[in-house]
């Protein structure tokens, strides 16, 4: 069922009660808040268990003992040495949640949040449901990840509303930050190394740690199913390792059920917007350090609008997995021993992980800016930098798009109706909030040009382009916040545009092809392609853009505007992918080292943009480049191998060319061979 | 015996005019006593009320019973053998069911489905041989009937059966044929019921020690045919350990071994085709089984644990040290409370159930949470010295898991409960409460998980299916083995407001069984498969396993004379 998770398709936010939790903070003492009596109702089955007990249980588990013996036998070291190493890993990893520290964090966060945000809106109904669920079964909190601000906001809300504090899975770089690392640890963060790869002992310690937390239910577990912070504000294809670890206690019958809480955090304006854009352009990310954080503190002077934290409806793993998993498969081997997950389990975990991301998307709240960004990006960049877009045109279009978005079921944060500011005021203040991206002069909207220090002038065309690209990518990121609403109809619009057919089955075939090619870019639930197609048809029909009959899909006269908007929405992605496809096909070599590949592709894109052959700056984004590589791997046209220093990619040129040809409409789509989801 | 409920006609629970629970008759320790706390527990647990009664149809309406389909040729030849038979409606209905909830519920409502067309009472092995020969000759379907205590729909007549169905009632084959004191074996006719077997052996100073909870009514042949298990299996073994020799009459002739050697290596043990065959291959007529001198000394005991987890850990340790007493059972908190509700009135002073409970734990078990504590009941048997020594060993282990000795009386009451609980179901059915028990066996590391998950599943399913009241969902660990345990679940609910309570009940039980299997539990520890659990046989024993069983059936009984359609 495609719509099982779409029980709230309601447009707008009128029906939901979002409460600004900062309002209370602005009225009463932050110190009082930090020192409030904290008396949450924990999970009913939880045994009280200190952090030391938890670590001890992990180290003494049958599973770790077994793995230690196995590793000792493989490496020739003694079991004690291996266990010592395990102990070290656990020490590096484990959280050390302390209420004192939470109070301190609470106090600091109250101050910071009030400075940054005009409001933090939380849906009380979701919070109430969470409060209930926590007592019933072990709970997994699954927020999306768009900003460092995500990190402690959940804990802050939990503290404020007397809900047990979560343990939070975090990337190891955060642990390395002086002081901050320790503070996070004491706030419940536990730290996971990046690129664990085949480190057997590390996997074992981590999975036993996670499993023990879930099994005993000593605290809710919070983790980002996307694995890392999205650099593009677009959902990231979920990582499956952690998801599997979290679900295993249910598969193995160690708990009756597990409750997943999807949480959608949405920002009007993201703290790291400019950093992210530069990172995407290959200007290296600053190492996470405390000094870097302090340097960034000028960021704190600006206004970031409001934040929405939407706690989704609790989802029962038992219910979700019904009929998908035969739990008897764990009957014949002791549950404490390592066991490779079966294909059935892998498919289920992948399905569920993707579903969770989709639910997060559906729960996310977007403001006018996401819509305006879509429209701004459809104007030629040169227009935006040189002559500007007429304000009237932009606002008219935005209002048109608002209607479309609402038709498509978007959760739109657009105060309107009686007693609210008129729409134009809303848009004006939106543009004002995003002064880092656009400015409005004499009735026109311009893209902001980075100030270049006088002594550096004159600057080269490349430098100028990079500076423009940074702003375009920021804009693209904000557009991405609305993509999940439009992507399915947009795929259909693109299919109509490229195939020029009205035959439903041909359209479906092309739709599926696009979905396959772009499923590293947008989140699709595995196995749901025909539901996605139906949804696209339904939505386009609903807004009057197409007529759908048994065999045919025809465009209505009134539908051209919608379809061309949707098709233009996807165009940057198609253009970017094609640049890379052509690079891979036309290049003489067919083995590419990762770093060289990324540089070469960026150079090519730069060249093409400067020569006017390529119109989208998004082709410069390293995120896109990596996605193309992953997609081609998934489509079995590129194989990855580990060379001495870095990854190498071997390309099947003919296969890539075929994909490119289908995408250009030169040949009809064939079924692409896709390998199942990445390993757990 | 009752025709639409459990046990003896003179024995039942009822609420008397004062609203107090009372157990009638003279047969049990509890008989004739007032049980003051039961009403409060009953009403509190199920939300049941004395005002809402659901009485049974008082007498069987013979009109509801289909007239028999008789095979005239068979009847004629059978008559000439002189073996008694009947096609009286009551005789037929009585042998058409076991004690599954749906069977009893239907009888109480006066509903009767397909029943045997006639009943025969063979008097000895040779009679059975004749009956089977005639059945083969005239293509008649035979269903062996022992004590009628099946809880697997094993006695239900297949509705699709069009042939004449003859119930072969073995109750007249109830003699001990000889006792061999040199080898300590007894040769017994298979129709004997448990309590008679023990009583007769006791007269000679022996016992089998095989005491399934149904032993008052179940028969030796039934035990063999279902792979029964006795409460005291830790000393005496289960039926497969007790049987030395079996004779079974099949359509192909009589199957038996040629000697009484204590163990033989002659390919797969043919006894294992017989044990658990559930009446699909033939009629067990005579069994040679182990006997033991009667124990010199018996002592009950009980231990209270702060929680179920500790209790299970203790049982596991006892099993590890292989020092389990004759019986050791662990009840969960709900059953502990239930046990308390069944305390008879000792003085005229009335104390409420909760007061009594409070008094019990406050005075004796300070610091134990009355909503979490649980109790293990124990039975020791053997020489006096050894029993006392054994008892100390077990209590020492219990102490390591926070267990405190709670007296002989609590232990004994625990075992008594076993015999009266089936009567209690009949009481419940008078007040809109239906229930049942079912069992499984499971490895040690899964015991806690299976108990929690199955109980939770029952509660969840009841909610989903629209049951208006919180069900009773409780369990106990009833047997320990080296590698695992036997777990019993009890489940009952108030069905007021449901249009088809039996269907709801069956759906919940089915879900509970799914949950058991998903948690590494077996399809059955000793109740057997019958028709109730057939749907899971293939996944339980694999395709090849099914093929093996099927090919045995095909060879032994190609015409499906033993057509109860159990198991396969």
Automatic annotation (TrEMBL), chain A:
All copies of domain Phospholipid/glycerol acyltransferase, residue ranges = 139-268
User: Where does it sit, as one GO cellular component term?
Assistant: peroxisomal membrane
| GO BP annotations, alphabetical order | ether lipid biosynthetic process; fatty acid metabolic process; phospholipid biosynthetic process; triglyceride biosynthetic process
Q: Name one GO molecular function term.
A: glycerol-3-phosphate O-acyltransferase activity
Q: Which InterPro entries match?
A: GPAT/DHAPAT, GPAT/DHAPAT_C, GPAT/DHAPAT_LPLAT, Plipid/glycerol_acylTrfase
List the keywords (alphabetical): Acyltransferase, Membrane, Transferase
This protein's pathway reads: Phospholipid metabolism
Compartment(s): Membrane
The record's family statement is:
Belongs to the GPAT/DAPAT family.
User: What is the official name of this protein in its record?
Assistant: Phospholipid/glycerol acyltransferase domain-containing protein
Source lineage: Eukaryota, Metazoa, Chordata, Craniata, Vertebrata
UniProtKB/TrEMBL annotation, chain B:
Q: Which GO terms describe its cellular component?
A: peroxisomal membrane
- What's the EC number here? 2.5.1.26
Kindly state which reaction or reactions the protein catalyses.
1-hexadecanoylglycerone 3-phosphate + a long-chain fatty acid = a 1-acylglycerone 3-phosphate + hexadecanoate; a long chain fatty alcohol + a 1-acylglycerone 3-phosphate = a 1-O-alkylglycerone 3-phosphate + a long-chain fatty acid + H(+); hexadecan-1-ol + 1-hexadecanoylglycerone 3-phosphate = 1-O-hexadecylglycerone 3-phosphate + hexadecanoate + H(+)
Known pathway? Lipid metabolism; Glycerolipid metabolism; ether lipid biosynthesis
Q: Which domain of life is it from?
A: Eukaryota
> Signal peptide location in the record?
none
Which positions does UniProt annotate for FAD binding? 144-150, 226-229, 278-284
Give the matching SUPFAM superfamilies. FAD-binding/transporter-associated domain-like, FAD-linked oxidases, C-terminal domain
Assembly, per entry: Homodimer.
The UniProt entry's sequence similarity note says:
Belongs to the FAD-binding oxidoreductase/transferase type 4 family.
Q: What is this protein called?
A: Alkylglycerone-phosphate synthase
């Amino acid at each position: 069922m495609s719509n099982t998770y779409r029980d709230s398709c309601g447009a707008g936010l009128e029906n939901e009660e979002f409460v600004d939790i900062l309002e209370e903070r602005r009225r009463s003492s932050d110190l009082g808040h930090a020192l409030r009596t904290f008396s949450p109702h924990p999970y009913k089955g939880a045994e009280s268990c200190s952090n030391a007990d938890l670590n001890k249980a992990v180290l003494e588990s049958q599973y770790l003992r077994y793995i230690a013996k196995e590793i000792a036998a493989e490496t020739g070291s003694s079991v004690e040495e291996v266990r010592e190493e395990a102990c070290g890993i656990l020490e590096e990893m484990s959280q050390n949640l302390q209420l004192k520290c939470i109070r301190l964090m609470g106090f600091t966060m109250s101050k910071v949040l009030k400075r940054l945000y005009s409001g933090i809106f939380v849906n009380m109904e979701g919070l109430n449901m969470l409060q209930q669920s926590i007592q019933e079964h072990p709970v997994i909190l699954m927020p999306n990840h768009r900003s460092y601000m995500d990190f402690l906001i959940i804990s802050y809300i939990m503290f404020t509303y007397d809900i047990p504090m979560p343990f939070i899975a975090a990337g190891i770089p955060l642990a390395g930050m002086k002081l901050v690392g320790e503070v996070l640890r004491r706030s419940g963060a536990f730290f996971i190394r990046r690129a664990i790869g085949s480190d057997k002992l590390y996997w074992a310690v981590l999975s036993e740690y996670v499993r023990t937390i879930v099994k005993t239910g000593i605290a809710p577990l919070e983790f980002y199913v996307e694995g890392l912070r999205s650099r593009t504000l677009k959902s990231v294809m979920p990582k499956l390792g952690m998801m599997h670890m979290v679900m295993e206690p249910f598969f193995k019958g160690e708990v009756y059920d597990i409750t997943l809480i999807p949480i959608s955090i949405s920002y009007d304006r993201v703290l790291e917007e400019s950093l992210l854009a530069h990172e995407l352009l290959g200007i290296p990310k600053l190492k996470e350090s405390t000094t870097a954080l302090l340097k960034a503190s000028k960021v704190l002077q600006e206004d970031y609008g409001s934040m929405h934290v939407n706690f989704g409806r609790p989802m029962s793993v038992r219910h979700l997995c019904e009929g998908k998993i035969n739990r008897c498969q764990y009957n014949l081997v002791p549950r404490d021993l390592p066991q490779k997950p079966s294909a059935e389990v892998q498919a289920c975990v992948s399905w569920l992980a993707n579903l969770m991301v989709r639910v997060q998307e559906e729960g996310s709240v977007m403001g006018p800016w996401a819509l305006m960004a879509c429209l701004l990006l459809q104007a030629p960049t040169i227009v935006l930098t040189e002559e500007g877009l007429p304000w009237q045109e932009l606002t008219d279009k935005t209002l048109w798009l608002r209607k479309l978005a609402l038709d498509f079921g978007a959760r739109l944060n657009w105060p309107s109706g009686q007693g609210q500011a008129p729409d134009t005021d809303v848009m004006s203040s939106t543009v004002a909030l995003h002064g880092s991206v656009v400015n409005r002069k004499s009735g026109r909207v311009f893209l902001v040009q980075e100030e270049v220090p006088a002594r550096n002038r004159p600057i080269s065309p490349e430098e100028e382009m990079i500076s423009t690209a940074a702003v375009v990518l920021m804009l693209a990121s904000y557009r991405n916040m609305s993509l999940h609403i439009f992507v399915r109809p947009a795929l259909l619009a693109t299919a109509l545009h490229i195939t020029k057919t009205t035959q439903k089955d041909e359209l479906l075939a092309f739709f599926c092809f696009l979905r396959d090619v772009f499923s590293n870019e947008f989140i699709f639930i595995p196995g749901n392609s025909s539901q996605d197609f139906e949804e696209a048809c339904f939505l386009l029909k609903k807004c009057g853009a197409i007529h759908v009959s048994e065999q045919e899909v025809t465009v209505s006269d009134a539908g051209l505007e919608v379809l061309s908007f949707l098709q233009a929405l996807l165009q940057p992605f198609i253009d970017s992918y094609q640049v890379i496809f052509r690079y891979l096909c036309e290049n003489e070599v067919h083995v590419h080292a990762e770093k060289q590949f990324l540089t070469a592709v960026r150079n090519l894109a730069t060249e093409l943009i400067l020569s006017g052959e390529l119109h989208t700056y998004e082709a410069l984004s390293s995120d896109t480049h990596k996605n193309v590589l992953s997609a081609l791997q998934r489509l079995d046209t590129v194989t990855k191998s580990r060379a001495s220093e870095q990854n190498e990619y071997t390309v099947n040129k003919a296969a890539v060319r075929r994909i490119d040809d289908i995408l250009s409409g030169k040949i009809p789509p064939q079924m692409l061979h896709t390998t199942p989801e990445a390993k757990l | 015996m009752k025709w639409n409920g459990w046990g003896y006609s003179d024995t039942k629970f009822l609420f008397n005019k004062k609203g107090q629970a009372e157990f009638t008759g003279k047969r049990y320790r509890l008989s004739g006593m007032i049980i003051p706390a039961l009403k409060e527990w009953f009403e509190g647990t199920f939300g049941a009320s004395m005002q809402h009664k659901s009485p049974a149809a008082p007498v069987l309406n013979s009109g509801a019973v289909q007239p028999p389909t008789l095979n005239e040729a068979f009847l004629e030849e059978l008559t000439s053998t002189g073996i008694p038979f009947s096609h009286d409606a009551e005789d037929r209905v009585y042998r058409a069911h076991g004690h599954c909830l749906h069977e009893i519920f239907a009888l109480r409502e006066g509903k009767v489905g397909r029943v045997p067309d006639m009943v025969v009472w063979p008097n000895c092995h040779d009679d059975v041989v004749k009956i089977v020969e005639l059945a083969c000759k005239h293509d008649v379907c035979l269903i062996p009937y022992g004590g009628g205590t099946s809880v697997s729909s094993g006695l239900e007549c297949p509705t699709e059966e069009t042939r004449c169905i003859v119930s072969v009632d073995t109750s007249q084959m109830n003699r001990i044929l000889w006792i061999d004191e040199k080898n300590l074996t007894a040769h017994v006719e298979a129709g004997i019921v448990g309590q008679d077997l023990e009583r007769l052996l006791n007269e000679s100073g022996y016992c089998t020690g095989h005491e399934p909870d149904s032993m008052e009514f179940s028969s030796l042949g039934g035990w063999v045919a279902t792979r029964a298990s006795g409460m005291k299996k830790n000393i005496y073994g289960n039926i497969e350990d007790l049987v030395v020799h079996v004779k079974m009459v099949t359509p192909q002739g009589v199957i038996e071994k040629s000697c009484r050697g204590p163990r033989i290596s002659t390919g797969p043990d043919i006894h294992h085709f017989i044990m658990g065959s559930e009446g699909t291959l033939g009629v067990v007529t005579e069994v040679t089984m182990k006997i033991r001198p009667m124990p010199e000394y018996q002592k009950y005991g009980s231990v209270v644990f702060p929680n179920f987890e500790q209790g299970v850990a203790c049982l596991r340790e006892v099993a590890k040290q292989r020092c389990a007493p004759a019986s050791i059972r662990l009840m969960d908190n709900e059953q502990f409370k239930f046990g308390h509700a069944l305390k008879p009135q000792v003085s005229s002073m009335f104390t409420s159930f909760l007061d009594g409970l409070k008094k019990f734990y406050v005075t004796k078990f300070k610091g134990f949470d009355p909503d979490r504590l649980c109790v293990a009941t124990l039975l020791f048997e053997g020489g006096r010295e050894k029993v006392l020594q054994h008892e100390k060993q077990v209590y020492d282990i219990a102490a390591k898991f926070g267990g405190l000795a709670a007296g002989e009386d609590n232990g004994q009451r625990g075992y008594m409960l076993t015999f009266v609980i089936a009567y209690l179901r009949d009481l419940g059915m008078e007040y809109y409460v239906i229930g049942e028990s079912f069992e499984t066996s499971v490895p040690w590391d899964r015991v806690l998980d299976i108990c929690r998950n199955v109980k939770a599943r029952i509660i969840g399913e009841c909610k989903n299916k629209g049951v208006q009241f919180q069900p009773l969902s409780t369990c106990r660990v009833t047997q320990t083995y080296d590698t695992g345990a036997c777990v019993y679940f009890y489940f009952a609910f108030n069905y007021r407001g449901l249009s088809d309570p039996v269907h709801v009940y069956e759906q919940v039980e089915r879900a509970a069984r799914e949950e058991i299997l998903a948690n590494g539990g077996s399809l059955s520890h000793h109740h057997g498969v019958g028709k109730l659990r057939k749907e899971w046989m293939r996944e339980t024993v694999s395709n090849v396993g099914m093929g093996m069983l099927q090919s045995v059936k095909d060879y032994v009984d190609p015409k499906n004379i033993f057509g109860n359609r159990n198991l396969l």
